[in-house]
Amino acid sequence: MRVGRFSRLATASLALICAVTIAAGVAVARLLPGRLALWRSPGIAASRLVGPADVLGAATGLADPIGGATTAGITRALAPLLSSAVLGPRLGVLVTNLATGQVLFDQDASSAFTPASNAKLATAVAALQVLGPAARFHTTVVTGATPSSIVLVGGGDPTLAAGRPPSSDYPQPATLLALAKSTAAALRARGRSSVQLGYDTSLYTGPGLGPGWPESYVTTGNVSIITSLEVDQGRLTASGAPQDADVADSLPRSPDPAYQAATAFAGFLSADGITLTGLPVQVTAPAGAATLASVASPPLAEIVQWMLEESNNVIAENVARHVALATGRPASFSGAAAAVEAVLRGLGITSGISLQDGSGLSPYDAITPAVLTRLIDLAASKPRLRAVLTGLPVANFSGTLQPGASVFPPGGSAARGVVRAKTGNLSTVATLTGIAYARDGQLLTFAMMADKVQPADLPMAASALVNMATVLAACGCR
């Protein structure tokens, strides 16, 4: 009797699960753009088709047999939007076929414009190229100049957190909390329960604010002072404590990020039973000092994705400095900018870019639309650089292209999920660079730059650029 009742219950439950699953599938299918049906289901080939080096070229070429956009088609599609007064008197636009490199539309694409945060694409490509996607940045504690002293050494990890960040944050950063725990254990093993704490920021040189940066960038929460030792990117709660939650707000950043980090570390050591004698002091770690403890950042590929998705200025500036260090240049604003440009020259970008910082906050940065599309092309053709593409915000879904995340709107239904683009804006600048998966199956690369926008028109200018990207996704443009 119990068996029969269980059998009937199981049968009814399975039927209900099937019905719900089918209904959910139909609902999701209706939400997705129709052209996703153009994707081909995987199958097993009878013989080997391509070698490893050809995979991306073959994959991007799959779209081409359906038909190609033409210059005339792209021009007709964009024409109604190009003359919008909100974009100001200077507009550069370049649209290319990602698979073939064919230029489909060119308006002033060889002229240099202020890139705003689109400059982060250059920093990302250079960093991944010279450091590799698996690179990590280390924060260490070493022995000091006396037996009773230790030094917290900043290693330029822009993702380092003070305490425990929310478990939902991705990637999970290294923390001073974990570093203090390891340090306390190492000190106890040496018979030490009381130390003087120093902190070392000597990895970087030069000023903490970039060329053309007003101090209001710090007080309005856009960026912190750039130093090789900081936690939570200088973010503070209303009470002045480190803000471990990675949230965007307009609260002022720390006026002294390195001291804030050292003070937080001292608090964690104290809570772990180590007595601190005096306040933390800035020092330079002795040459050859023994390492007591160390924590490592997430891999660079994940850091780059983080940087691009939320347009994180602190991450960009630190990553650029690591490019400088890797190429033998001073880890300063000028050294980092020169290093990024040098790495890009090695990748074939020999003109069309002049940087003053790594984030695009400087109004003196200059890049052409042609260079921006070339950066996307490089990321698409080199597996080493793939995090540049995977880190781009997705229209309607992620990063600065999700609803309410930035001055840029998320895009129309035609862009949903099939436009990936880096946004950029300053008070008079709106830029957008990325990829649109067009209705006919083509992958289109685009860069759109307007740097003479009236401040009051900035939201409308950003919207106009997103509308252009949406048009590219919506059209066959033949």
Explain how this protein is built.
- By secondary structure, the protein is α+β, with helices and mostly antiparallel strands.
- It folds into 2 domains: 64-132 and 304-474, Beta-lactamase, CATH 3.40.710.10; 138-298, no CATH class.
- It is built from 13 helices and 13 strands.
- The protein has helices at 2-31, 55-61, 71-82, 119-131, 176-189, 216-219, 257-271, 300-310, 313-326, 333-346, 369-381, 387-390, 458-474; strands spanning 91-97, 103-107, 138-143, 149-153, 194-200, 275-276, 281-282, 291-296, 353-354, 366-367, 419-426, 429-437, 443-450.
- Strands 3, 4, 5, 6, 7 and 8 form a 6-stranded mixed sheet that branches.
- The radius of gyration is 25 Å and the shape is elongated.
- It starts with a helix and ends with a helix.
Key structural traits:
single chain; 478 residues; alpha+beta; Beta-lactamase; 2 domains; six-stranded mixed beta sheet; five-stranded antiparallel beta sheet; 13 helices; 13 strands; elongated
